[in-house]
Amino acid sequence: MTIRKLVGAVQPEEEEEIRFVQENVTLCFDNNRFAGKGSLRVGTKNVYWTSTSSEAQNIFTYSINYQAIVLHAVSRDLDAFSLPCIYCQLDESIDESLLPEVEGQTTNTRMEGEDEDEEDEDEEGVTEVRFCPEDESILNRLFEIISECSALNPDPASDDEERGMLGDGFDSRDLVLNHLENILQISPQFYSQEQEGEQKQNGTQNEEEEEEEERRKKKEERRKKKEERRKKKEERRKKKEERRKKKEERRKKKEERRKKKE
After folding, report:
1. Taking CA 226 as the corner, what is the angle to CA 1 and CA 228, rounded to the nearest 5 degrees?
2. pLDDT tens across 26-41, in order?
3. What average pLDDT is seen over the chain?
4. d(CA 95, CA 29)
5. CB atoms < 10 A from the CB of 150, how many?
6. Cα–Cα distances in Å, from 35 out to 25, 87, 200?
7. Are 2 and 63 within 8 A, CB to CB?
8. Closest to 25 measured CA to CA, from 17, 36, 33
9. Rounded to an integer, what distance in angstroms lies between the CA atom of residue 177 and that of residue 193?
10. Terminus-to-terminus CA distance in the chain, angstroms?
11. Is the pLDDT of residue 103 over 50?
12. How far apart, in Å, are the Cα atoms of 61 and each of 9, 52, 92, 115?
């Protein structure tokens, strides 16, 4: 689990460095689930958001591992969301019971005319998170630090990344042979055996190069597949945003009809 909700103000992991701290940051999940204001800490292994409360028993922390963050960006489009923020899309869903309730309605209520099936169409395995600092001037700096720390936590799928070509190395045998050539008459048979050995060695090197090339191709294929998944997730996010706008339009029309009746 790379997205966790923990009790209290959680301390960073062992050997983890906190690179950035900002107070008064509003946390929101999936557009309308606000967790309130809290303290945001950007570590080298995780991003932490801790709630603000005068009572210790009411304090909780969300911890997000960088490997769960598919994409992150600065968003200032107030048509897309009501506050300037750092938008993150996570490649993992969070348990419904750990999320705050939808603002303005209970978990079980729906707007009139809203199709239950439409809710079921929402992406599975994806969570949208927005960090909205009270001081929006820090957004660019916050984005840069998250990018830097994210780069420190590469995808495990690339663990078998190319290890580099083997060095040629210096063979002292060459020096000995060169010296013997100067003082002895070397049998042609020796040369043929030596050449055969070199051919075998070259053949081994060629095999290693072919294996290295195969690993490089597989890595490139994984990168392309990951990029395709990211694009599909982005498309689903846009569709979800469109559905949200349509719902909002229906709500406004309903409100207008209600006012006309009054």
Report:
1. 125
2. 999 988 889 999 999 9
3. 78
4. 12
5. 17
6. 10, 15, 66
7. no
8. 36
9. 13
10. 51
11. yes
12. 6, 10, 18, 34
Count of beta carbons in the 10 Å neighbourhood of residue 62: 24
Confidence of residue 210 (pLDDT cuts 50, 70, 90): confident
pTM over 0.70: no
Instruction: Please state the length of the chain.
Output: 262
CA 60 to chain centre: 23
Structure tokens at 129: 């998170």
Strands 3-7 and 60-65: antiparallel
Q: Which two tokens stand for residue 37?
A: 């204001």
Alpha-carbon distance of 38 to 27, in angstroms, equals: 8
CA-based torsion, 175, 178, 184, 189: positive or negative: positive
Number of Cα atoms under 13 Å in the Cβ half of residue 32:
13
Banded pLDDT at 122 (limits 50, 70, 90): very low
Structure tokens at 216: 């490089």
What distance in Å separates the CA atoms of residue 89 and residue 69, rounded to the nearest whole number? 6
Instruction: Please report which helix (H) or strand (E) contains residue 254, including its range.
Output: helix 188-261
Strand partners, 132: 26
What's the mean pLDDT in 35-61? Answer: 89
CB of 8 closer than 8 Å to CB of 60: yes
**C-alpha atoms less than 13 angstroms from C-alpha of 89 in its C-beta half-sphere:** 19
Contact yes or no for 135/24 (Cβ under 8 A): yes
- Cβ within 8 Å of residue 56, ≥6 positions away: 8
Residue 125: pLDDT over 50: yes
